[in-house]
Amino acid sequence: MPHRTLVAQQLASMFSVLSHPVRVRIIVELRAGELCVNSLQDILGIRQSAVSQHLALLDSSACQCALTLWAALCH
């Protein structure tokens, strides 16, 4: 697979994950430091299971690769 195609797929995956406002809020909250799921639940006002599901998507390997790639492209 050509490099540009792979980059495009990784970026599309990242944008898909970041398309949900709760996931963006989680990233914003975690920039200040680590938080437990219960703390995120209180901050976001959603159920613990929903927080865990959003965190699982953010922690997926495809998303991690895309976020790393995005950070490299922005610098």
What does the secondary structure layout of this molecule look like, with pairings?
Layout: H1 3-17, H2 21-31, H3 37-44, H4 48-58, H5 61-74
Largest sheet: none
Please give the alpha-carbon distance between the first and last residues. 25 Å
Strand content: under 5%
Count of strand segments: 0
* Poorly predicted runs of 5 or more residues: none
**What is the typical, i.e. mean, pLDDT?**
84
**Please, how many domains?**
1
H/E element sequence: HHHHH
Q: Count of helices?
A: 5
Task: Considering the chains and any ligands shown, give keywords for the structure.
75 residues, mainly alpha, 5 helices
Provide a descriptive summary of the structure in words.
With 75 residues, the chain is mostly helical. It has one domain (3-74). It contains five helices and no strands. The protein has helices at 3-17, 21-31, 37-44, 48-58, 61-74. Helix 1 crosses helix 5 (61-74). It is elongated. The protein starts with a helix and ends with a helix. The model has no long low-confidence stretch (mean pLDDT 84).
Give a short synopsis of this structure.
The protein is mostly helical.
